Give the backbone structure.
Amino acid sequence: FQIEGDANGQKEGRRVFLKMQDTLTSILVNIDTVKIENGKFKFEGEVKEPSLRFIVIDSVEGQVPFVLETGKITVAVNKDTIYKSIVGGTYSNEQLVAYSKQTEKVQQNVQKFQETNREKIQQAQMTSDTVTMNALMKEYKVYQDQFKEISLKHVEEHPKSFISLFFIQQFLNDPSF
């Protein structure tokens, strides 16, 4: 694999980490580190099978999820909001970006719901108000169902995408599937 990153707007010499999620602790652990030079960074190596990995830039909040797989992977780092960075170059990464765009509206609605109901949620938790909590959870379930629907449609339309396998694994852990 080869990962070529465009990190214009990031500080020269800043470290860029290639990370993976530890299966036991869910903590991101370092696999490799490079530095930004002339607004760019590059990782190279071998990979036996595709896997979900993350790019993290030192002193920058957030991470860029991507599929580490054979091929040339490109990362255009969004200098203002790192998780909005664009990953491409390989089939699964292009599918991951397409999926992210499909879920963007639902994610915005979830964020709006959480902001609107933050005080209600806190109050209900503090007073053990199960009626309010159940009503809020019922409202929130609409968004969860939308995510499930988009994910299932992705699996059906893109059976060769690595993220389809990722979704199938999630479905297996969800009794509603």
